[in-house]
Design brief:
The structure is a homodimer. In chain A, a hairpin with a 5-residue loop joins strand 4 and strand 5. The model of chain A has no long low-confidence stretch (mean pLDDT about 90). Chain A has a 3-stranded antiparallel sheet with strand order 1-3-2. A 3-stranded mixed sheet of chain A has the order 5-4-6. Helix content of chain A is about 40%, strand content about 25%. The first copy, chain A, is globular and about 50 Å long. The first copy, chain A, has helices at about 15-25, 30-40, 50-55, 65-80, 120-130, 150, 160-165, and strands at about 45, 80-90, 90-95, 105-110, 115-120, 135-145. The interface between A and B is medium-sized, with 32 and 32 residues. The structure holds a DNA duplex.
Chain lengths: ~160, ~160
DNA sequence: CTACGTGCAAAGCTTTTGCATGGAA
DNA sequence: TTCCATGCAAAAGCTTTGCACGTAG
Protein backbone atom coordinates (compact mmCIF):
# COMPACT_ATOMS: atom_id res chain seq x y z
CA UNK A 1 0.00 0.00 0.00
CA UNK A 2 2.51 2.52 -1.14
CA UNK A 3 0.73 4.76 -3.59
CA UNK A 4 -2.07 6.33 -1.70
CA UNK A 5 -1.73 8.51 1.33
CA UNK A 6 -3.59 7.82 4.51
CA UNK A 7 -6.20 10.33 5.46
CA UNK A 8 -6.23 11.75 8.97
CA UNK A 9 -9.18 10.40 10.90
CA UNK A 10 -11.08 12.10 13.64
CA UNK A 11 -11.93 8.96 15.59
CA UNK A 12 -9.21 6.34 16.09
CA UNK A 13 -10.09 2.85 14.87
CA UNK A 14 -10.19 1.39 18.36
CA UNK A 15 -12.81 3.87 19.45
CA UNK A 16 -14.79 3.29 16.34
CA UNK A 17 -14.69 -0.40 17.11
CA UNK A 18 -15.69 0.02 20.74
CA UNK A 19 -18.59 2.08 19.60
CA UNK A 20 -19.67 -0.60 17.17
CA UNK A 21 -19.40 -3.30 19.80
CA UNK A 22 -21.49 -1.27 22.21
CA UNK A 23 -24.35 -1.12 19.76
CA UNK A 24 -24.29 -4.89 19.72
CA UNK A 25 -24.02 -5.32 23.47
CA UNK A 26 -20.46 -6.57 23.18
CA UNK A 27 -17.26 -5.61 24.92
CA UNK A 28 -13.89 -4.38 23.82
CA UNK A 29 -11.74 -7.04 25.44
CA UNK A 30 -7.94 -6.90 25.65
CA UNK A 31 -7.77 -9.55 22.94
CA UNK A 32 -9.95 -7.57 20.60
CA UNK A 33 -8.06 -4.42 21.30
CA UNK A 34 -4.76 -6.16 20.62
CA UNK A 35 -6.03 -7.29 17.24
CA UNK A 36 -7.28 -3.88 16.19
CA UNK A 37 -4.00 -2.36 17.28
CA UNK A 38 -2.03 -4.92 15.34
CA UNK A 39 -4.16 -4.54 12.24
CA UNK A 40 -3.92 -0.77 12.31
CA UNK A 41 -0.23 -0.62 13.14
CA UNK A 42 0.54 -0.60 9.44
CA UNK A 43 -1.27 -0.15 6.18
CA UNK A 44 -0.20 -3.44 4.67
CA UNK A 45 -2.56 -6.00 3.27
CA UNK A 46 -2.92 -8.99 5.50
CA UNK A 47 -4.68 -12.28 5.99
CA UNK A 48 -5.94 -13.95 9.14
CA UNK A 49 -2.88 -16.11 9.51
CA UNK A 50 -0.53 -13.17 9.80
CA UNK A 51 -2.09 -12.20 13.08
CA UNK A 52 -2.65 -15.70 14.30
CA UNK A 53 1.08 -16.29 13.97
CA UNK A 54 1.98 -13.09 15.78
CA UNK A 55 -0.63 -13.13 18.49
CA UNK A 56 -1.01 -16.76 19.38
CA UNK A 57 2.33 -17.25 21.09
CA UNK A 58 3.27 -13.69 21.71
CA UNK A 59 5.64 -13.07 24.63
CA UNK A 60 4.94 -9.51 25.75
CA UNK A 61 1.46 -8.05 25.57
CA UNK A 62 -1.93 -9.67 25.27
CA UNK A 63 -2.32 -12.83 23.23
CA UNK A 64 -5.20 -14.02 21.14
CA UNK A 65 -6.08 -17.45 19.90
CA UNK A 66 -6.77 -18.46 16.33
CA UNK A 67 -10.51 -18.51 16.99
CA UNK A 68 -10.47 -15.07 18.47
CA UNK A 69 -8.52 -13.66 15.57
CA UNK A 70 -10.99 -15.05 13.06
CA UNK A 71 -13.95 -13.95 15.12
CA UNK A 72 -12.55 -10.47 15.57
CA UNK A 73 -11.72 -10.00 11.92
CA UNK A 74 -15.34 -10.77 11.10
CA UNK A 75 -16.44 -8.17 13.60
CA UNK A 76 -14.02 -5.61 12.22
CA UNK A 77 -15.40 -6.22 8.79
CA UNK A 78 -18.93 -5.87 10.03
CA UNK A 79 -17.92 -2.64 11.73
CA UNK A 80 -16.63 -1.30 8.44
CA UNK A 81 -13.04 -1.03 9.64
CA UNK A 82 -11.58 -3.54 7.26
CA UNK A 83 -12.72 -5.20 4.08
CA UNK A 84 -11.83 -8.23 2.03
CA UNK A 85 -9.99 -7.19 -1.09
CA UNK A 86 -9.02 -10.40 -2.76
CA UNK A 87 -8.09 -14.01 -2.28
CA UNK A 88 -4.54 -15.14 -2.38
CA UNK A 89 -3.32 -18.64 -1.77
CA UNK A 90 -6.82 -19.62 -0.77
CA UNK A 91 -6.85 -17.03 1.93
CA UNK A 92 -8.97 -13.95 2.25
CA UNK A 93 -6.86 -10.83 2.05
CA UNK A 94 -7.98 -7.82 4.05
CA UNK A 95 -7.09 -4.17 4.14
CA UNK A 96 -8.14 -1.07 6.03
CA UNK A 97 -11.47 0.35 5.04
CA UNK A 98 -11.35 3.28 7.41
CA UNK A 99 -9.17 6.34 7.21
CA UNK A 100 -8.04 5.38 3.76
CA UNK A 101 -9.15 6.61 0.34
CA UNK A 102 -11.23 4.32 -1.85
CA UNK A 103 -9.25 2.29 -4.30
CA UNK A 104 -9.06 -1.05 -6.07
CA UNK A 105 -6.24 -3.35 -7.11
CA UNK A 106 -4.25 -4.59 -10.03
CA UNK A 107 -3.05 -8.04 -9.09
CA UNK A 108 -0.04 -9.52 -10.83
CA UNK A 109 -0.49 -13.18 -11.67
CA UNK A 110 3.24 -13.69 -11.71
CA UNK A 111 4.62 -12.03 -8.59
CA UNK A 112 1.37 -11.60 -6.73
CA UNK A 113 1.98 -7.93 -6.20
CA UNK A 114 -1.10 -5.83 -5.53
CA UNK A 115 -1.01 -2.35 -7.02
CA UNK A 116 -3.54 0.11 -5.72
CA UNK A 117 -5.27 2.71 -7.80
CA UNK A 118 -7.90 5.29 -6.86
CA UNK A 119 -11.29 4.38 -8.22
CA UNK A 120 -13.43 7.51 -8.42
CA UNK A 121 -14.26 6.90 -12.05
CA UNK A 122 -15.32 3.37 -11.35
CA UNK A 123 -17.20 4.31 -8.22
CA UNK A 124 -19.16 6.88 -10.21
CA UNK A 125 -19.95 4.39 -12.94
CA UNK A 126 -21.18 1.98 -10.30
CA UNK A 127 -23.40 4.61 -8.67
CA UNK A 128 -25.04 5.05 -12.02
CA UNK A 129 -25.53 1.38 -12.65
CA UNK A 130 -26.87 0.83 -9.17
CA UNK A 131 -29.33 3.69 -9.53
CA UNK A 132 -30.55 2.28 -12.82
CA UNK A 133 -31.35 -1.00 -11.14
CA UNK A 134 -32.74 0.39 -7.92
CA UNK A 135 -29.89 -1.41 -6.20
CA UNK A 136 -28.79 -0.15 -2.79
CA UNK A 137 -25.05 -0.56 -3.17
CA UNK A 138 -23.03 -1.01 -0.02
CA UNK A 139 -19.64 -1.84 -1.42
CA UNK A 140 -17.71 -3.63 -4.07
CA UNK A 141 -14.72 -5.77 -4.71
CA UNK A 142 -12.74 -5.36 -7.88
CA UNK A 143 -9.75 -7.48 -8.72
CA UNK A 144 -7.95 -6.71 -11.95
CA UNK A 145 -5.78 -9.55 -13.08
CA UNK A 146 -2.75 -9.44 -15.34
CA UNK A 147 1.01 -9.01 -15.46
CA UNK A 148 2.67 -6.07 -13.80
CA UNK A 149 5.21 -3.84 -15.52
CA UNK A 150 8.11 -5.44 -13.72
CA UNK A 151 7.20 -8.98 -14.61
CA UNK A 152 6.43 -8.25 -18.24
CA UNK A 153 9.71 -6.46 -18.78
CA UNK A 154 12.23 -8.90 -20.25
CA UNK A 155 14.92 -9.84 -17.74
CA UNK A 156 17.78 -7.35 -17.92
CA UNK A 157 21.37 -7.58 -16.88
CA UNK A 158 22.34 -5.58 -13.86
CA UNK A 159 25.03 -3.63 -15.65
CA UNK A 160 23.37 -1.84 -18.49
CA UNK A 161 26.67 -0.62 -19.85
CA UNK A 162 27.51 -4.05 -21.13
CA UNK A 163 24.60 -3.83 -23.52
CA UNK A 164 26.03 -0.77 -25.15
CA UNK A 165 29.26 -2.30 -26.28
CA UNK B 1 -28.56 -14.28 -16.55
CA UNK B 2 -31.72 -12.76 -17.84
CA UNK B 3 -30.83 -9.28 -18.96
CA UNK B 4 -28.23 -9.70 -21.60
CA UNK B 5 -28.74 -11.50 -24.84
CA UNK B 6 -26.42 -14.23 -25.98
CA UNK B 7 -24.41 -13.44 -29.07
CA UNK B 8 -24.37 -15.90 -31.93
CA UNK B 9 -20.99 -17.57 -32.12
CA UNK B 10 -19.24 -18.88 -35.17
CA UNK B 11 -17.45 -21.75 -33.44
CA UNK B 12 -19.39 -23.87 -30.93
CA UNK B 13 -17.85 -24.10 -27.46
CA UNK B 14 -16.99 -27.75 -27.82
CA UNK B 15 -14.93 -27.09 -30.91
CA UNK B 16 -13.26 -24.17 -29.29
CA UNK B 17 -12.36 -26.44 -26.41
CA UNK B 18 -11.09 -29.24 -28.61
CA UNK B 19 -8.92 -26.71 -30.38
CA UNK B 20 -7.52 -25.49 -27.07
CA UNK B 21 -6.82 -29.01 -25.89
CA UNK B 22 -4.99 -29.80 -29.12
CA UNK B 23 -2.57 -26.96 -28.61
CA UNK B 24 -1.72 -28.53 -25.28
CA UNK B 25 -1.42 -32.04 -26.60
CA UNK B 26 -4.55 -33.11 -24.79
CA UNK B 27 -7.67 -34.92 -25.91
CA UNK B 28 -11.37 -34.18 -25.93
CA UNK B 29 -12.59 -37.21 -24.00
CA UNK B 30 -16.26 -38.16 -23.59
CA UNK B 31 -16.08 -36.96 -19.99
CA UNK B 32 -14.74 -33.59 -20.99
CA UNK B 33 -17.28 -33.28 -23.75
CA UNK B 34 -20.09 -34.14 -21.37
CA UNK B 35 -18.99 -31.38 -19.04
CA UNK B 36 -18.75 -28.74 -21.74
CA UNK B 37 -22.15 -29.75 -23.01
CA UNK B 38 -23.63 -29.55 -19.57
CA UNK B 39 -22.06 -26.21 -18.84
CA UNK B 40 -23.20 -24.72 -22.11
CA UNK B 41 -26.68 -26.21 -22.04
CA UNK B 42 -27.87 -23.11 -20.22
CA UNK B 43 -26.63 -19.64 -19.42
CA UNK B 44 -27.04 -19.98 -15.67
CA UNK B 45 -24.31 -19.32 -13.17
CA UNK B 46 -22.98 -22.48 -11.63
CA UNK B 47 -20.42 -23.92 -9.26
CA UNK B 48 -18.41 -27.12 -9.45
CA UNK B 49 -20.78 -29.04 -7.21
CA UNK B 50 -23.72 -28.56 -9.54
CA UNK B 51 -22.05 -30.68 -12.16
CA UNK B 52 -20.51 -33.12 -9.77
CA UNK B 53 -23.98 -33.90 -8.49
CA UNK B 54 -25.42 -34.33 -11.96
CA UNK B 55 -22.58 -36.15 -13.62
CA UNK B 56 -21.19 -38.39 -10.95
CA UNK B 57 -24.06 -40.87 -10.77
CA UNK B 58 -25.80 -40.09 -13.99
CA UNK B 59 -27.87 -42.90 -15.50
CA UNK B 60 -27.95 -42.20 -19.24
CA UNK B 61 -24.98 -40.67 -21.00
CA UNK B 62 -21.36 -40.35 -19.98
CA UNK B 63 -20.46 -39.83 -16.35
CA UNK B 64 -17.66 -37.85 -14.82
CA UNK B 65 -16.10 -38.04 -11.41
CA UNK B 66 -15.60 -35.19 -9.01
CA UNK B 67 -11.93 -34.95 -9.88
CA UNK B 68 -12.65 -34.80 -13.57
CA UNK B 69 -15.21 -32.09 -13.13
CA UNK B 70 -12.79 -29.93 -11.17
CA UNK B 71 -9.97 -30.60 -13.57
CA UNK B 72 -12.13 -29.85 -16.58
CA UNK B 73 -13.49 -26.62 -15.15
CA UNK B 74 -9.93 -25.44 -14.71
CA UNK B 75 -9.21 -26.27 -18.30
CA UNK B 76 -12.32 -24.50 -19.49
CA UNK B 77 -11.27 -21.45 -17.60
CA UNK B 78 -7.80 -21.61 -19.06
CA UNK B 79 -9.35 -21.95 -22.49
CA UNK B 80 -11.32 -18.77 -21.93
CA UNK B 81 -14.68 -20.51 -22.14
CA UNK B 82 -15.77 -19.81 -18.60
CA UNK B 83 -14.65 -17.48 -15.87
CA UNK B 84 -15.02 -17.16 -12.13
CA UNK B 85 -17.43 -14.38 -11.30
CA UNK B 86 -17.84 -14.52 -7.57
CA UNK B 87 -17.82 -16.67 -4.49
CA UNK B 88 -20.97 -17.88 -2.91
CA UNK B 89 -21.25 -20.21 0.05
CA UNK B 90 -17.51 -20.68 -0.05
CA UNK B 91 -17.70 -21.92 -3.60
CA UNK B 92 -16.37 -20.41 -6.76
CA UNK B 93 -19.17 -19.38 -9.07
CA UNK B 94 -18.57 -19.60 -12.80
CA UNK B 95 -20.30 -18.32 -15.88
CA UNK B 96 -19.82 -18.42 -19.64
CA UNK B 97 -17.08 -16.23 -20.95
CA UNK B 98 -17.58 -17.09 -24.59
CA UNK B 99 -20.42 -16.06 -26.84
CA UNK B 100 -21.65 -13.66 -24.23
CA UNK B 101 -21.21 -9.91 -23.87
CA UNK B 102 -18.91 -8.56 -21.17
CA UNK B 103 -20.64 -7.69 -17.96
CA UNK B 104 -20.31 -7.62 -14.20
CA UNK B 105 -22.69 -8.29 -11.33
CA UNK B 106 -24.72 -6.67 -8.64
CA UNK B 107 -25.06 -9.23 -5.89
CA UNK B 108 -27.89 -8.98 -3.40
CA UNK B 109 -26.80 -9.73 0.15
CA UNK B 110 -30.33 -10.67 1.07
CA UNK B 111 -31.62 -12.98 -1.64
CA UNK B 112 -28.31 -13.76 -3.29
CA UNK B 113 -29.59 -12.76 -6.67
CA UNK B 114 -26.95 -11.78 -9.21
CA UNK B 115 -27.96 -9.00 -11.56
CA UNK B 116 -25.85 -8.56 -14.65
CA UNK B 117 -24.97 -5.26 -16.19
CA UNK B 118 -22.86 -4.41 -19.24
CA UNK B 119 -19.53 -2.94 -18.25
CA UNK B 120 -18.13 -0.97 -21.16
CA UNK B 121 -17.63 2.11 -19.06
CA UNK B 122 -15.79 0.21 -16.42
CA UNK B 123 -13.76 -1.74 -18.93
CA UNK B 124 -12.64 1.51 -20.50
CA UNK B 125 -11.70 2.98 -17.16
CA UNK B 126 -9.68 -0.12 -16.43
CA UNK B 127 -7.86 0.05 -19.75
CA UNK B 128 -6.78 3.52 -18.79
CA UNK B 129 -5.63 2.58 -15.35
CA UNK B 130 -3.77 -0.44 -16.64
CA UNK B 131 -2.01 1.63 -19.29
CA UNK B 132 -0.96 4.15 -16.68
CA UNK B 133 0.70 1.41 -14.70
CA UNK B 134 2.19 -0.51 -17.58
CA UNK B 135 0.00 -3.38 -16.43
CA UNK B 136 -0.92 -6.04 -18.99
CA UNK B 137 -4.50 -6.67 -17.98
CA UNK B 138 -5.96 -10.05 -18.80
CA UNK B 139 -9.27 -9.86 -17.00
CA UNK B 140 -11.12 -8.69 -13.97
CA UNK B 141 -13.66 -9.68 -11.42
CA UNK B 142 -16.07 -7.14 -10.05
CA UNK B 143 -18.62 -7.96 -7.40
CA UNK B 144 -20.92 -5.15 -6.36
CA UNK B 145 -22.60 -5.84 -3.08
CA UNK B 146 -25.83 -4.42 -1.76
CA UNK B 147 -29.58 -4.91 -1.59
CA UNK B 148 -31.59 -5.42 -4.73
CA UNK B 149 -34.71 -3.48 -5.59
CA UNK B 150 -36.99 -6.34 -4.65
CA UNK B 151 -35.49 -6.90 -1.25
CA UNK B 152 -35.34 -3.24 -0.32
CA UNK B 153 -38.95 -2.64 -1.27
CA UNK B 154 -41.14 -2.91 1.83
CA UNK B 155 -43.26 -6.07 1.71
CA UNK B 156 -46.46 -5.43 -0.17
CA UNK B 157 -49.76 -7.19 -0.22
CA UNK B 158 -50.53 -9.16 -3.31
CA UNK B 159 -53.73 -7.28 -4.07
CA UNK B 160 -52.71 -3.74 -4.64
CA UNK B 161 -56.29 -2.62 -4.85
CA UNK B 162 -56.70 -3.05 -1.13
CA UNK B 163 -54.15 -0.30 -0.64
CA UNK B 164 -56.27 2.12 -2.56
CA UNK B 165 -59.28 1.97 -0.34
C1' DC C 1 -25.76 -14.30 38.99
C1' DT C 2 -25.94 -13.76 34.09
C1' DA C 3 -24.17 -13.01 29.84
C1' DC C 4 -20.43 -12.48 27.03
C1' DG C 5 -15.55 -14.13 25.56
C1' DT C 6 -11.73 -17.09 25.10
C1' DG C 7 -9.10 -21.13 23.93
C1' DC C 8 -8.71 -25.65 22.52
C1' DA C 9 -9.58 -29.21 19.64
C1' DA C 10 -12.42 -31.15 16.45
C1' DA C 11 -15.26 -30.70 12.63
C1' DG C 12 -16.63 -28.76 8.08
C1' DC C 13 -15.93 -27.42 3.47
C1' DT C 14 -14.33 -27.07 -0.94
C1' DT C 15 -10.63 -28.15 -3.88
C1' DT C 16 -6.33 -30.64 -4.94
C1' DT C 17 -3.37 -34.62 -5.41
C1' DG C 18 -1.21 -39.42 -5.47
C1' DC C 19 -1.69 -43.57 -7.47
C1' DA C 20 -3.19 -47.56 -9.97
C1' DT C 21 -5.89 -48.77 -13.79
C1' DG C 22 -7.53 -48.17 -18.59
C1' DG C 23 -7.52 -46.69 -23.25
C1' DA C 24 -6.37 -43.97 -27.44
C1' DA C 25 -2.79 -43.23 -31.00
C1' DT D 1 4.23 -48.92 -26.20
C1' DT D 2 3.69 -44.61 -24.58
C1' DC D 3 1.12 -40.99 -22.89
C1' DC D 4 -2.84 -39.00 -21.43
C1' DA D 5 -7.16 -39.48 -18.43
C1' DT D 6 -10.12 -41.22 -15.09
C1' DG D 7 -11.73 -42.44 -10.54
C1' DC D 8 -11.16 -43.27 -5.93
C1' DA D 9 -9.79 -42.05 -1.65
C1' DA D 10 -6.98 -39.45 1.01
C1' DA D 11 -4.80 -35.09 1.81
C1' DA D 12 -4.62 -30.23 2.22
C1' DG D 13 -5.89 -25.89 3.82
C1' DC D 14 -8.50 -22.33 5.58
C1' DT D 15 -12.31 -21.23 8.50
C1' DT D 16 -15.99 -22.35 11.68
C1' DT D 17 -18.01 -24.39 15.75
C1' DG D 18 -19.06 -26.92 20.23
C1' DC D 19 -17.98 -26.82 24.71
C1' DA D 20 -16.12 -25.93 29.24
C1' DC D 21 -14.15 -22.55 31.79
C1' DG D 22 -13.40 -17.58 33.13
C1' DT D 23 -14.65 -13.12 34.17
C1' DA D 24 -16.64 -8.52 33.67
C1' DG D 25 -20.66 -6.03 35.25
Amino acid sequence: MSELTAMPVAVPPVDKFREFLLTKGMRLTPEREAIVDAVYASHEHFDADVWVEKLERRKGGPRASRSTVYRTLSLLEEAGLIRKVARSNDREVYEHDYGYPQHDHLICKKCGDMIEFPNELIAEALELVAAEHGFRMSGHRLEVEGICANCSRPPQRLHRKLDMI
